[in-house]
Amino acid sequence: MTDIPGLVIFDCDGVLVDSEPISNEVLAVCLTEAGLPTSAAEAMAEYRGRLMDDVVARAQARLGAPLPPGFVDSYERARVRSFELGLRPVPGAAGAVTAITAAGVKACVASQGRLEKTELTLALTGLRPLFGAGALFSAYSVARGKPHPDLFLYAAAQMADLPERTVVVEDTPIGVTAAIAAGMRVVGYAADAGDEPALLGAGAVVIGSLPELPALIGLGPKRRERRQRRDGSGPPPG
Question: What is the band of 50 on the pLDDT scale with cuts at 50, 70, 90?
Fold first, then answer.
């Protein structure tokens, strides 16, 4: 990736906040209690990165019956309690976002989850101040969530930038597929080396740590200096 983007869109869960293990452990317990024995690993494989409506539909298909009334509310309450006890930012997330915005590139968050959940998880991990008041977006604001492109196109439009000038950072093949469908460049964050083949197969350029991101998208020190000179914000060449 050589062209400096105008906008970087971050997925939230699994990219900025290390919420996926917690969410899927809680989901596994709730599904098991509802009569569908599920391990945390199975929950990650089957439901990770999906809208809650899709999670419910898939679980009910496997169960062969409706989930109990109030299942989603009970799960979400249990998840919040677990977030409050142990949610952490993804290592290097704050530094990567700070480096991107310091270079004059816009940054926002686009998540499958509701805005209230994104606000909560970013606040709990200390990342919320890194994004502006209008820089959080939810799939619940568009007609279709990931793997469709609607959410990313909506976020770019709201941030006043073009798809071809946008880079998306995702941790799931579903998200990668959505970004490519939107005509955007996409970086796959593989916290676990086992995630890399699926991200590569979906079409992402893959990194194993977020501190790699700024240089990958053209924001290394030399490129920042050239950008400042083009913009007239840096010292003249010697």
Answer: confident
**What are the tens digits of pLDDT across the range 129-138?**
999 999 999 9
Residue 53: which domain range? 20-86
Rounded to whole angstroms, how far apart are CA atoms 164 and 155? 13
* Contact of 206 with 199, CB cutoff 8 Å: yes
Q: Does 27 lie in the same domain as 11?
A: no
The least confident of 24-28, 130-134, 176-180, 230-234 is 230-234
Closest CA to 128 of 153, 156, 109: 109
Rounded to the nearest 5°, which phi and psi values hold at 40? -60, -40
Residue 136 sits at φ, ψ, to 5 deg, of: -115, 135
Burial 32-52 (b: 16+ CB within 10 A, else e): eebebebebebbbebbbbbbb
